[in-house]
Every structure is written in structure tokens, then in C-alpha cells.
């Protein structure tokens, strides 16, 4: 039994080593990939559930590989944050999202807005506001075309510095959404301080809202809280009609999820929007 235990241990150790090798090689590839602009943005529609129209699209990063697969953001974004590449990558995301939004507007989707995810690191180098300003100017967009999604964890530390930068973004006309709401630090004071206009309820609560009474109570409480604070709510990760119906019964008005669409490559979005937008 002891021998078995040891061989199991060795096996485990080897796979850990393998995992950290993979991480290391990925880490080394990030900077060159950012420089090469090897990344791609996919876009997932956010839907007004009261009339089934698309209100905006969320830009989601993909890292395409030579074999046709791609590395998901949950794998490489933490690494990009570790090595500092996230600032250049995040800058590219903002610029690319603006270029895309401008070209979509020019081709007839005149009201399209894009939501861009931000990492806390992008607030730490003090360049964010300038980057956004320049990206907007270069694409000929006004700030109202952009929404920024921030996770709660971002809002815990260095409150004042971040608050100031968020204020500058809203002065340009951009809006702010709190992402993954409910999963992080539960200090609700920041909801008022950060001038957010939206809360996005995390998928982990939405997914089993029909089977878990606790989750239903939680989602219902978040919707009520948002209403009292004058914030809009977007439910993430809606995959089936049952979940949609439950959310509608709780007067949740906006949603996002595979029920309507997975994140789409840039070129495929117009076809989807033509079904959903009058234009
Ligand atoms: P997120 O911001 O919470 O994005 C939502 C994630 O849920 C996306 O995963 C999306 O594809 C997925 N999703 C949407 N609807 C459904 C559904 O109905 N069912 C299921 N199972 N999943 C759904 P994705 O694209 O893999 O992105 C993962 C995370 O990576 C994002 O979570 C975000 O935190 C981060 N991320 C993506 N792009 C960027 C970026 O440009 N910058 C930063 N800083 N983070 C990004
Ligand atoms: Ca998001
Ligand atoms: Ca989210
Ligand atoms: Ca998430």
C-alpha cells in the first residue's frame, strides 16, 4: 500500500510539474503575442428581455493557436497580469473594441455599444483615461459607445485612485458595470461611490436559479437592491427558457447567455444582429 501511495504521489508531482511548465511557456509567449496582435475579440450580445432586442455586446478575448484551437481568457489573463503584459493587452482590447464599434455603427448598427472588461492593473499605471480618450478620438466615437466592466475585487483597494479614474471615464460619457456581482467582497458602500450604472449578476447564481431556492432568493434580493439604488441589472449565463422565465418573473430586464448566443467572432455578429435589431 505504501508503494502504491508513493507512485501515486510521484505521478501527482509530475503532473504538477507539467502544469507549471505549460504555464511558464505560456507566460513567455504572451508578450510576443501581444506585440504581434495575435489575439482576437469575440462579441456576446446583451439582450433586453422585455423586447428581445440587443442593447450592447461584451468584448471577450480569445488567443487563437496555430492548430485552430484557442486558449480561453481564464487561462492567460491571470498570467498576463503576473507579467505585466495586461496593460498593453488591455490597451489593444480598448482600441480594437472602438475600431469595431465604429465600423459596425458605420455599416448601419448605429446604436451599438460595446462592453470592455478591465483588469485592476489597468488602473494602476495611470494611463487608462488617456488610452480611452485616444481610442475614442481615433475611431470617431463618443464615450457613450463604451461600457467598462469591473469586478468587485477591483473596488476594494486603492479606492480613491480608482474612484478618480472611474469618474474621469464617466465624464467622457462611458458607463460602468459591476461584473460578477455577488461573488466578491460584500461591502455595498462602493455601489454608490463608484457611479456604476449596472450590476451583472454572476452566472453561478443564475445557472441554478430554478433548482435552488437559496439562489432564487439571492438573485431576487440583488434585483431589489439594484432597483432601490437606481441601477440596471444584467443576468449572466442564461442558458435555457426556464431560467429566462424565472428571471422575468423577478423583473430582471437584461440578460446574456448561450440561450441567445455564445460569444461570436467579429464577422459573425452582423448576421445575428440583423435578426434582433431593426435597421
Ligand atoms: P466574464 O467577464 O464574467 O465573462 C462572461 C463569461 O461567461 C465569458 O467567458 C462568456 O463566454 C461566458 N458565458 C456567457 N454566457 C454563458 C452561458 O450561458 N453559459 C456559460 N457556461 N458561460 C457563458 P470567457 O469568454 O471565457 O471569459 C472569461 C473571463 O475572462 C471573463 O469573465 C472575464 O473576466 C475575462 N476576460 C475576457 N476578456 C477579457 C478582457 O478583454 N480583459 C479582461 N481584463 N478580462 C477579460
Ligand atoms: Ca464581464
Ligand atoms: Ca461576469
Ligand atoms: Ca466571470
Describe this structure in words.
Helices cover 50% and strands 19% of the residues. With 279 residues, the chain is an alpha/beta fold. The protein has helices at 2-36, 73-83, 86-106, 121-124, 128-139, 159-171, 189-193, 203-206, 213-229, 241-249, 269-276; strands at 40-48, 53-64, 70-71, 114-117, 146-151, 175-181, 198-201, 232-235, 254-255, 264-265. Bound molecules: ligand C2E and calcium ion (CA) (3 copies). The site of one calcium ion has 4 residues, from β6.
The first-to-last residue Cα distance is 70 Å
The percentage of residues in β strands lies in 15-25%
The small molecules bound here are: ligand C2E, calcium ion
Poorly predicted sequence stretches spanning 5 or more consecutive residues: 1-7
The largest sheet is: 8 strands, mixed, barrel
Read across the widest sheet, the strand sequence of neighbours is 1-2-4-5-6-7-8-9
Shape: globular
Succession of helices and strands: HEEEHHEHHEHEHEHHEHEEH
Bin the helical content: 40-55%
The assembly state of the depicted protein chains is single chain
Protein name: EAL domain-containing protein
Domain EAL: 23-277
Characteristic key phrases:
279 residues, alpha/beta, eight-stranded mixed beta barrel, disordered N terminus, binds ligand C2E, binds calcium ion
Quick structural gist:
This is EAL domain-containing protein. It contains eleven helices and ten strands.
Topology:
Blueprint: H1 2-36, E1 40-48, E2 53-64, E3 70-71, H2 73-83, H3 86-106, E4 114-117, H4 121-124, H5 128-139, E5 146-151, H6 159-171, E6 175-181, H7 189-193, E7 198-201, H8 203-206, H9 213-229, E8 232-235, H10 241-249, E9 254-255, E10 264-265, H11 269-276
Parallel strand pairs: 2-4, 4-5, 5-6, 6-7, 7-8, 8-9
Antiparallel strand pairs: 1-2, 1-9, 1-10, 2-3
The chain binds ligand C2E and calcium ion (3 copies).
Domain EAL: 23-277
Protein name: EAL domain-containing protein
Organism: Brumicola blandensis
